[in-house]
TrEMBL record:
GO terms for biological process: regulation of DNA-templated transcription. InterPro entries: Arc_rbn_hlx_hlx, RHH_5, Ribbon_hlx_hlx. Residues 6-43 form the CopG-like ribbon-helix-helix domain. It holds the Pfam family RHH_5. It comes from Candidatus Abzuiibacterium crystallinum. This is CopG-like ribbon-helix-helix domain-containing protein. It comes from the Bacteria.
Length: 83
């Protein structure tokens, strides 16, 4: 895969933490940053999908209530003594 070079500025304490973690994991700084960015982007996408799913579930629940009420009215027409 082709790579592009970018410059990133970090506060000293964050750079030190990055260096320590890269050393502990026996990897390069850039590899660790790549993994972190990928994870961040995946989490953002997952949150977006969860929001969309929640909205869809709410809409389906609302539609189900409407259908329930429509069938309840139809049932009462045909079986008025049944509750």
């Amino acid at each position: 895969m082709a790579m592009e070079h970018i410059n990133i500025t970090f506060p000293p304490d964050l750079k030190e933490a990055l260096d320590r973690t890269a050393k502990q994991e026996k990897t390069k700084r850039s590899t660790l940053i790549q993994k972190a960015v990928k994870m961040y982007l995946r989490l953002k996408q997952r949150k977006k999908l969860n929001i969309l799913l929640s909205e869809a579930y709410r809409e389906m629940a609302d539609e189900a209530k409407v259908l329930r009420d429509e069938f309840k009215a139809a049932d009462q027409e045909h079986w008025p003594d049944v509750d």
